[in-house]
Amino acid sequence: MASRARLFKEYKEVQRDRGQDSDIQLLCDETNIYRWTALIKGPTDTPYQEGVFQLAINVPEQYPLVPPQVRFVTKIFHPNVHFKTGEICLDILKTAWSPAWTLQSVCRAVIALLAHPEADSPLNCDCGNLLRSGDHRGYKSMALMYTRLAAATNV
Amino acid sequence: MASEEGSRSDSQGADTSDVSSNRHDEDLVVQFAAAAQPEMMRAAEKDEHYVGQVCEACYDAFRHTFGTRLAVAYQNEMKLAGRVLYYLLTTGAGLQTLGEEYCDIVQVAGVPGLPATPARRTLLVFYQTVLPYLAERLSARAASRGMYLGSEDGEDETSTSSQTSRVEETFGREETSSGSSGSVDPGNNMEIRQRRRAPLTWRLRQAWMAALRRWPQILPSVREGLVLLVRTHLMLFYFEGLYYHMGKRAAGIRYIFTGRPSQQRPRYQMLGMFLLIQLTFVCGHWLTRTVFPSIASSMRLRETNPSLSAVGSQGIAVIDEDGGKVEEKGPSRPSNMWAESEATASSKCPLCLSPRQHPTATPCGHVFCWNCVAEWCNEKPECPLCRAPVSHPELVCVYHADF
User: Fold this and answer.
1) Residues of A with CB below 8 A from B387's CB?
2) Pairwise CA distance, residues A117 & A99, whole Å
3) Which GO terms describe its biological process (chain A) (predicted)?
4) Which residues from B are below 8 Å from A1, CB to CB?
5) Do both B135 and B262 map to the same domain?
6) Residue A152 pairs with which residues in a beta bridge?
7) B109: which of A66, A129, B116, B349 fits an S-S bond (Cβ 3.0–4.6 Å)?
8) DSSP assignment letter at A42
9) Which residue of B has its CA nearest to A95?
10) B26 Ramachandran zone, left/alpha/beta (phi>0; psi -120 to 50)
11) Residue B308 contacts by C-beta under 8 Å, 6 or more apart in sequence?
12) Same domain (yes/no): B328, B364
């Protein structure tokens, strides 16, 4: 029940700060406060910058003692995101979780991950190999292509 | 009545008998003092207590005879039966209720101070017992029926309503010029013809259906209105001290006090004042919420007059800001809120995002609720904010610091 109270607080905060942070749009499921959807803008100066990516957030009952489960719904070409399932490899969503994180700050962390791909712990091996072999141009064009295909804002 | 008073005052102290004998000299019609508010309220409370007991007894008897399931199903009826039984056996039989007897008050009808007639008493019992039950039952039934109707014609409700409104429109036009409207729409024409055949019943039926359909929506406001009515009635009671129950007001039954007169008879005008203030506020709020916006919008419609429209638009903006509740504080509110959030941010726990309960500090100096940080330390012994290692014995509850 502590999770519900805290999620209500976060919901209120999100409602209050709506419009302040245009990069993150957090939406709560109408009927279930444990299910959220986030729309994040790709960070500038990255191949993702023209895209809007949808995240599905599943909050467990023990939240905030355990991290929320976040995955990409929108296809994305990124070394730390599984290309098929959308699973995200991010330490704060796994072992380095702290209850001081909120859904909002988790989204911010995901945006930061988009700007700083970590090729050494890839979930998308093709993407990771491109980066590790130094083919930044290949990585960028692939990521840009998928951003335009799947996450373009003007579609 | 007079003999009763005489015997009573004989049994009382000497001074009171003196008073009553003086009165006897003046005129033989003896007037009892009207009962004061405390006595009436005490009597009513006592009665409620006994009614509760009777209801419980009825329920138990019913349960033993017919089983628990039926008893639960007919719970409300059992309550009604208990009430009816209690009031029929006391008021109905022309006796004092237990509460009235306890407080030495007697029911009389109207100003002359005569005992209430059986018809009046029956009416009172009806008002006090059956009427609320019936009203509740009928409104519940109407609400369920209205909801059923609403779901039945869920999607085409708008169409039917628009249709009826169209029909009414054409009907209105028809009265002015009967020929032209008939040729507007053949479907409408049929309906109008039907209406001509039985206009009154059709109209009544239509109104009834519309009322049924709207009942679930207006039920909350009706309830609210009833609460206000009850409160107004209570306020009147505090001021004039005549009728504690609405049923008694409707039946015109008052109380007289037959006990030993005491010097201190507190009046409740003060409470009445408070209630009056509260009701005034509620009414004012209601007015600002419902009446003023409509006035403002109607003013805005009249855009021809610049000064009027300016007032109207101002009203609209003010009310739109926050549901019409905070009007005059409009511009100063955001800054207030900021200050508030700034002030509370320091005393908020970053884990539950609520004000801290039993503030607890870690060795690294971060402060949380005791429950929040202790639970997290079970999970992982580090500070949630700076990841410095923390163990349970190191947590310090800081009760004696004001921050």
Assistant:
1) 98
2) 24
3) peroxisome organization
4) none
5) yes
6) A51
7) B116
8) P
9) B380
10) alpha
11) B299, B302
12) no
Helix (H) or strand (E) holding B325: none
- Across the interface, of A13, A64, A66, the residue whose CB is closest to B351 is A64
Could you tell me the two tokens for A151?
A: 């996450």
CB distance A76 to A53 below 8 Å: yes
Q: Say whether A100 and B384 touch across the interface (CB within 8 A).
A: yes
Domain interval for residue B198: 21-152+165-177+189-267
Map residue B195 onto helix, strand or coil. helix
Q: Specify whether B38 is located in the same domain as B49.
A: yes
| Number of CB pairs, chain A paired with chain B, less than 8 A apart | 32
CA distance B32 to B113: 8
Give me the CATH topology for the region A2-151. Answer: Ubiquitin Conjugating Enzyme (3.10.110)
Q: Write down the domain spans for chain A.
A: 2-151
Q: What is the pLDDT along chain B (403 residues), one digit of tens a residue?
A: 444 444 444 444 444 444 444 444 445 556 677 788 888 888 999 999 999 999 999 988 988 898 888 888 888 888 899 999 999 888 888 888 888 888 888 888 866 667 788 888 888 888 888 888 888 888 888 888 877 776 665 444 444 444 444 444 444 444 434 333 334 444 455 555 555 556 778 888 888 888 887 777 788 788 888 888 988 888 888 888 788 888 888 888 888 888 777 666 677 888 888 889 988 988 888 888 777 666 666 666 554 444 443 444 443 333 333 333 333 333 444 444 444 444 445 678 888 888 888 889 999 989 988 888 888 888 888 899 888 988 888 888 888 776 6
Angle value at C-alpha A136, between A133 and A140, nearest 5 degrees = 135
What amino acid positions of A are annotated as catalytic residues? 89
Amino acid at B249: R
Q: Is B82 on the interface with A (CB under 8 A)?
A: no
ipTM of this complex = 0.82
